[in-house]
Amino acid sequence: MQQGLNSPTSAFKPDYVYWIKHYAGLLWRWKWYIIPVFPALVVTWLLLVVTFGTVRPELGVNVIFGFEKQSSVLVLPEALSSEMGKMKLIQSRNFLSEIVDSLSLHFIIPKHNRSSILNFTYVDSTAIPGKYHFGIDEQSRLTYTVALTNRKLGINKKVITTGRLPSLDTLNTNGMKFVFVPQFLKKPFDFNFYVIPREKAVENLRNKISIVGNTRRDPMMEGIVMVNLSGTDPQLISTTINKIADKFVERNLSFRKRKSSEVLKALQMQLQIASEQLRHDENRVRAFKEENPKVGLGIDAQNAINTMTMLESRDLTLSTEIDDAKDLLKRLSEQTGSDKDQTTSEALLFLSSRNVSSAIILQR
Fold it and tell me: Does pTM surpass 0.70?
């Protein structure tokens, strides 16, 4: 019996049947964790879609400006800098405030494109800043209300206007005018919009503008400047960048016309001065000849001849200047475009070489 107790036990060697049963048992225990995890994953995914699925991506549009060389007298002063990319006019608040007013950029629809709801938008300075809600009656679906919330003014969901949807086309209320698109009127929905202070709208627009010049000093890109505007509403940012470009070109053309007008005035003044001086010198020459009909060969006579020669030489110079001024005036009145720009530059050089102060001021 003692011998039976001391007999060695053989080692257990698991086979594939054992491992199948082993892992099947583990999966059977894990199923209780899988059941709650799967619905949790579904709920999390839905929350992510609802939260971030409506976020519109940031887009960007570009417009390219071509400038003349900096040496030209007609380059816009705001564009003159060490790099062509620094156009201070486009980033100036006074310039951008005109863009904000013309496009009502202090009116914001954060979750929708403006063009998907409105055909026309106008918001003036009398509109109260705050959050507005355009709501549709859930039961009848025939009436709408516009409510305002402004915590600083103590206003909470105050109804400022109401009406019937079937007759809605244009909405006028509290300094705001909206014309709705037909697609929205066919399937209207609730939406929020904001009216922000004009100064804040200008800063928002200014922060979304970036200007890139010829930083690599590429000769092929000389005078080329690219202006970029970013935003989430494709049509609105395209309209805005086009408005900026049109306004900038309008300012540039206005500057050219003003400078040409000032050059013409300076030339006319110089022509008048030269003509008066010419008449004065001609009278002096005539008087000298009348007083000295016969000139001897003495020193006095030699001095008289020198004086007469100097006066006649000055007379010839003034006549030449008058002819040059008349030629410039004629060319300025007849030419257009780049030819007129070149003639204007010649006129400024003509005036500055004769110490005309107004011409020097124009060249600065």
Answer: no
